[in-house]
Amino acid sequence: MSAAAAFDSARLVPDYIRQFEPYIPSKPDDELKKLYGCPCLHRLHNNENPLGPPKAAREIIRQMRTANAALYPSGDSYYLRVALAEHFSKHPDQFLVGNGSCEVITSVIKAFCEKGDNIITADKTFAVYEWVAEFSGYEAHLVPLDGFGFDDEGMLQRIDPHTKLIFVCNPNNPTGTYWTRDRTIRFLDRVAGRAVVVLDEAYCEFVEDADFPDGMELLEQYPNVLVFRTFSKMYGLAGLRVGYLAGPLELVDYVRRAYVVYSVNLLAQAAARAAVEQGEEHIHATRELMAQSRSVMERTVRELGLPYQSSPANYLMFQVPVNDTLFCRRLMRRGFMVRSMTAFRFPNWIRVSMAAPELMECFAEALAEELRSCERSTE
Ligand SMILES: *Cc1c(COP(=O)(O)O)cnc(C)c1O
Fold first, then answer.
1. What ligand 1 atom has the least distance to the C-alpha of 99?
2. Residue of the nearest CA to atom 7 in ligand 1?
3. Which pairing describes strands 336-337 and 42-43: parallel, antiparallel, or unpaired?
4. At what angle do helices 266-277 and 78-88 cross, to 10 degrees?
5. Which stretches does DSSP call E strand in the chain?
6. Which of 334, 353, 371 is nearest to 36 (CA)?
7. What are the tens digits of pLDDT across the range 13-38?
């Protein structure tokens, strides 16, 4: 038998990989424009910041010396961690920076789970926790949301001796609900150190409510708390891929062992550092813009009679009376890219990211017209 005929790739692949359904990212904008015949396409599907990066970060990007592209960056994002430590009054070793916070999710799961272990999270939340657990061969216990929020009681009941990690998305993507400080503390007290609790605060910089908890504070009081944050959302650096985790020294030291160094590029490190050090004004400007756009969108869905879930972050989800995937395609033809929620287990819901208020007005018009045309075609 030839070597090629003898090779059976499936024999070498674990069951959990063979059974895992790969996630297919959307095509590049230019391809989509051709496909849908729209000359311009508004990206309202990825919760990106329409204001882009803070001014200081833009300056860094513009001034990058091309010769530096040949140099390896700091392998552990040294100066960025020093800046984070300064900003949050912590030790630099309490931070681990990754190629987007998605990379640190992987490191955390690698560091704590072994064969037979499981993680707990919600059924309708950011899917990466569940995906990484599953393609790594661990079970993900998905606790149904209680209404639109994380069910603390239900999650506590699912803890077993093999539970290593509990992922709480606060505020939740896509429903926008959050646990208050009191509720989070009650939960942490009742977990009582049986597992590591990860608070994913990807959107915390948008939240202005006084009862919203600060994970940076909680991780000083609870030795089993890790906090995830990202530069992709508020700081408008999604294209450079940089996010991080923070935690007690001992926990971070374990996660660091399961992390491949040099994964964060030079430009990302420098731009993120500038964003941390000089990002205050940008945060205020973004919050102001979001408040205006949120009020446009809330008014729109209310007037259209669509059930909706608003959020203190930069997205809002609403229900449409037709198939969400088809409806998204129709909006695409009108030049608006939004997120269909079937993959989030919310069939017939759509999530829209907040951009400039004027653009939200245009989106509102397209949405209303598309709903009317759906009505006509079902009559
Ligand atoms: C966008 C997002 C992230 C961040 O991902 P990056 O890899 O840092 O771009 C993490 N968690 C949630 C809930 C998100 O929505």
1. 7
2. 100
3. parallel
4. 20
5. 42-43, 95-98, 118-122, 139-143, 163-169, 196-200, 225-230, 243-246, 308-309, 315-319, 336-337, 339-340, 349-353
6. 334
7. 999 999 999 888 899 999 999 999 99
